Automatic annotation (TrEMBL):
GO MF annotation: an example: oxidoreductase activity
Organism lineage string: Bacteria, Bacillati, Actinomycetota, Actinomycetes, Pseudonocardiales
Domain of life assignment: Bacteria
A Pfam family annotated for this UniProt entry: ADH_N
Name the record gives this protein: Alcohol dehydrogenase
SUPFAM superfamilies: GroES-like, NAD(P)-binding Rossmann-fold domains
Length: 345
């Protein structure tokens, strides 16, 4: 088969690779029908995630068709169309029993495209298939479901839910990439009074407006905009959706006393925590890896027409165009790309 292989920082290739095989009774083999690229994949290519070894197939977001299952798999079968979750769950360890699948101790968590081969390929081995795949409801397209593999549950769980967004809140989102836009969609479920989006790229601010943001600002104007929208108090919830020190530190400056900073971005460098300013402000800071415990609920909303994911995908490719898709996704300032989707021909 063909697969997208990481060969060290800055080196990648869409190349021939051995077909995946079942390695455990709980595995499934999935024919990849639709796949996308995540900002985390770009961090890997930069060398920000040193756990990823050379030779690793990247990717952790896909929709596909089950072609083979291990003897212990009982809830999916060959022929089923499934969403492959970015998080794998053994279903048995202490964290999985708390639905904290991202912290799985039994061999799961974020493993696809990280510590085991991922899904940017023609076929993939999916561990713990019973608890790590979701059969698509009738009428849900591959492309719509694909957005629920990572960005929608991540922004919901790690951003909006962990941040405690409530009706009437002033919410500031720093970063209008796919995660930030998904956070706009999810924050609207809780009726905040204002959603302020901060980004330096005009095209992404335009996208944020189309997703329902109320105020759009450049980073240099963020403090004044948040103060004006909140009667000088600051944001109730500040969601960091970039993953660089400057954006995290900006969130800590924009949040009000008693407010919440929810960090969603993947960081590859240290950020300064200004405790000399924050210690007295009763500020809560949360970090986290998505658990995808919300995925069944989000799929029900998608099937019922209560959630629209169609606006995320701006560019579409065939699987064999993986290199081009990465170039487009990695340079949104030139391409205006939000999410790219690649499909089996």
């Amino acid at each position: 088969m063909k697969a997208f292989v990481y060969d060290g920082p800055g080196r990648r290739s869409w190349t021939d690779h051995a077909d995946p095989e079942l390695a455990a009774p709980t595995d499934a083999i999935v024919r990849i029908d639709a796949v996308t690229i995540c900002g985390t994949d770009l961090h890997i290519l930069k060398g920000d995630v040193p756990e990823v070894e050379r030779g690793r197939i990247l990717g952790h977001e896909a929709v596909g068709t089950i072609t083979e299952t291990g003897t212990a798999v009982t809830t999916v079968k060959p022929g089923d169309k499934v969403l492959v979750s970015c998080i794998s769950a053994c279903g048995r360890c202490e964290y999985c029993r708390q639905a904290a699948y991202g912290q799985c101790l039994g061999g799961g968590g974020w493993i696809l495209g990280h510590t085991t081969d991922g899904v940017q390929a023609e076929y993939a081995r999916v561990p713990f298939a019973d608890t790590s795949t979701y059969v698509l409801p009738s009428g849900v397209s591959d492309e719509s479901a694909l957005m629920l593999a990572d960005i929608v549950p991540t922004s919901y769980e790690v951003g909006v839910s962990s941040g405690g967004v409530k009706p009437g809140d002033t919410v500031v989102l720093v970063g209008a990439g796919p995660i930030g836009l998904a956070a706009i969609t999810n924050a609207q479920l809780f009726s905040p009074s204002r959603i302020i989006v901060v980004d330096k790229e005009p095209a992404r601010l335009d996208a944020a407006k189309s997703f329902g943001a109320d105020v759009l600002v450049q980073p240099r104007d963020a403090a004044a905009a948040v103060a004006e929208a909140s009667d000088g108090l600051g944001a109730d919830v500040a969601i960091e959706a970039v993953g660089v020190p400057e954006t995290f530190e900006l969130c800590t400056k924009l949040v009000r006393p008693g407010g919440h900073v929810a960090n969603v971005g993947v960081h590859g460098a240290p950020a300064t925590l200004h405790l000399e300013e924050l210690w007295i402000k009763n500020v809560t800071i949360t970090t986290g890896l998505v658990d995808t415990s919300s995925t069944p609920m989000l799929l029900r909303m998608l099937a019922a027409g209560r959630m629209d994911t169609s606006r995320f995908v701006t560019h579409r490719f065939g699987l064999d165009d993986m290199d081009e898709a990465y170039d487009v996704f990695a340079h949104p300032q030139d391409s205006n790309a939000l999410k790219v989707a690649l499909f089996r021909s």
